[in-house]
Amino acid sequence: MQYEKIYQRTEAYFNEKIEKFGSNSIGVGWNGNDAQRIRYDQLAKLLSADGENFSVCDYGCGYGYFYSYLKEKFPDWKGIYAGLDVSDKMIEEAKRKFGQNEAKRIFINDSKLNDTYDYIVSSGIFNLKLETSEEEWKKYILETINRFHSHSEKGFAFNALTKYSDKDKMREDLYYSDPLFLFDYCKTNFSKNVALLHDYQLYDFTIIVRKF
């Protein structure tokens, strides 16, 4: 697999994180619950105009907190939630919290992105490059969002750290994306309806791609 090393490094990193800190925002690499919810508020803007039965894939689901967020945000939602993650420890914790519950239409596993959903959302998966070169990481991002496009019927949304972060706070093991480049790429290749959200007081941005 082309990006097997990236997946292996990411899995090892987050397996260690959740074993050390548990199923919370620190355990998935965020700096707090408030920041995590702010990011989810941006991603959820993709979903807000839809009905009650949409299916959503949470790609890089961690311990599944986005499912709880969705049920709170859309209390009448009866659609399918599929959580995918490269970390086996994250998947174990997500299953412990929510189970593989067909009655509640919850499906959490470590399989690759093979099925198609109404929506795909992804938070934080493009940030931690570790030893990967910037050129290879950029290719990985573009290939991944192309897969989001191929496996979503109505749209997808993702976030990334911004290159406009304060220079003295930037880290070598993180990747800071160019929001204008990714906006242009999505606008050119995926849809005329693309939004770039970069106004929510964090060092990242969100891109929403709607296919309607």
What composes the largest sheet?
Answer: 7 strands, mixed
Mean pLDDT: 88
Note the beta-strand portion: 15-25%
Number of strands: 7
Number of helices: 6
Shape: globular
**Spatial order of strands in the largest sheet:** 3-2-1-4-5-7-6
Low-confidence stretches: none
Distance between the termini: 33 Å
* Estimated structural class: alpha/beta
Query: What is the helical fraction, as a range of percent?
Result: 25-40%
What does this structure look like?
36% of the residues lie in helices and 19% in strands. The chain is built from six helices and seven strands. Strands 3-2-1-4-5-7-6 form a seven-stranded mixed sheet, with helices on both faces.
Summarize the structure.
This protein is α/β, with parallel strands linked by helices and 212 residues long.
